[in-house]
UniProtKB/TrEMBL annotation, chain A:
It holds the Pfam family Fer2_2. This is Aerobic-type carbon monoxide dehydrogenase small subunit (CoxS/CutS family). InterPro entries: 2Fe-2S-bd (IPR002888), 2Fe-2S-bd_dom_sf (IPR036884), 2Fe-2S_ferredoxin-like_sf (IPR036010), 2Fe-2S_ferredoxin-type (IPR001041), 2Fe2S_fd_BS (IPR006058), Beta-grasp_dom_sf (IPR012675), Diverse_Oxidoreductases (IPR051452). Residues 10-86 form the 2Fe-2S ferredoxin-type domain. It comes from Bhargavaea ullalensis. The lineage of its organism: Bacteria, Bacillati, Bacillota, Bacilli, Bacillales. Keywords: 2Fe-2S, Iron, Iron-sulfur, Metal-binding, Oxidoreductase.
Automatic annotation (TrEMBL), chain B:
Residues 1-174 form the FAD-binding PCMH-type domain. Keywords: FAD, Flavoprotein, Oxidoreductase. InterPro entries: CO_DH_flav_C, CO_DH_flav_C_dom_sf, Diverse_Substr_Oxidored, FAD-bd_PCMH, FAD-bd_PCMH-like_sf, FAD-bd_PCMH_sub1, FAD-bd_PCMH_sub2, Mopterin_DH_FAD-bd. This is CO/xanthine dehydrogenase FAD-binding subunit. SMART domains: CO_deh_flav_C. It holds the Pfam family FAD_binding_5.
Amino acid sequence: MNRSIRQSKTVYRLNVNGETKEAMGRPADLLLDTLRTGLGLTGAKKACKNGDCGACTVIVGGDAVHACLMLTAEAEGKPVRTIEGLADSPVQRAFVDHWAIQCGFCTPGFIVKGHSLLEHHPDADDETVEEWLQSNLCRCTGYAEIKDAIQAAKKGFAD
Amino acid sequence: MIGFNFDYHRPGTPEEALSCFRESTGQGLQTVFYSGGTEFLTHARTGEISAGAVIDIKDIPECRELQWDGEILMIGAALTLNELAGSGEYPLLALAAKGVADHTSRNKITIGGNVNSRLPYREALLPLLLADAAAKVAGPEGERTLPLSELVGQGGRLPSGELLLQILVSRRAVERPHFFRKKTRMTKVGYPLVSLAADREGSRISGAFSGLCGQPFRLAQVDEVLSDKSLTPEAQAAEIRSLLPTAVTADQYASAEYRLFVLGRMLHELAEEWEECR
């Protein structure tokens, strides 16, 4: 048996942005709630809570996931990367340089998804960028600037 | 936030998973096997379902395998749709998997979860129906292998207490020429008005559909119609309409008439793509 957590609270040990962090929680707790409430990492946004909007996107074990659709228990033992861990990253800088921000609420999710995209496909073509970004919604409809920023960030990744 | 508590177990073998299931149900806990968990979490959050114990199968090596055993491709039930789409082992399944939900969700949705979903679409099931895939299942009576369609075809679901370990597909089925189209109402990400997966062996064409009726289906009579070279796509659409297992779906996404129109267009595309065998 690898792991069993009973209904009482437990202490989760998570590797977040390269640091080991502990948070108290229930087996039924969602990763999004643990990050925001347990660890104070509020960059991943709580919006649709249904895996539809992408505002809560984080990278777990190398893949972008909706933190609202993952139990905290599932993230144990895997590296978790949030927007707080991508400060001054090529994608974040490209978003600033290309004004790929309007109200900013969706921005963390887009940056995390874009970072994951370039980790997997450093030379992503337009079709791949389109497919990956379909996971995230921008109610301000700033999609053109966001795609421009991702394309521009490819150079930063290459460097 | 999920408004109820449950035990969480992550076993490393099918035997441990079944032992957990017995123990939890023995304590009176409603127990579910959990793979990607997207559907469970969505409905748990809204209170539509509940559970007293959740058994996460992702650490069971058998459920994470994707490999050939001679002429049989073994597909672990806990493989994500993106893992299958990216593997290149099964091109038609890759196309169908890429049509499900969005890219981020597909990092979590698993093939086992999709074919056993409560949603009426289950598009990853379509290639498996065409392939006459088998299901390797572990349950109270031990392991057994049976046609996947017997378990989850025609609206069926895996019985409670049974764990889908792997889906088994023959090389012959995997390597057939294939066709896949999905039409949604508006955007690429969305539920299908109609999805059609088809494959061909010689001049024999088989098709499986999602979105058209309440459940995905494949029917031998429809395969006959698709293979009949004397019929135009319009005539095929009319014949298929008369053979459908249930009424054509009419909902907020499309009327029944529009779905049938979309089906007709797809059959045209199929005829164009496989013109040489008509």
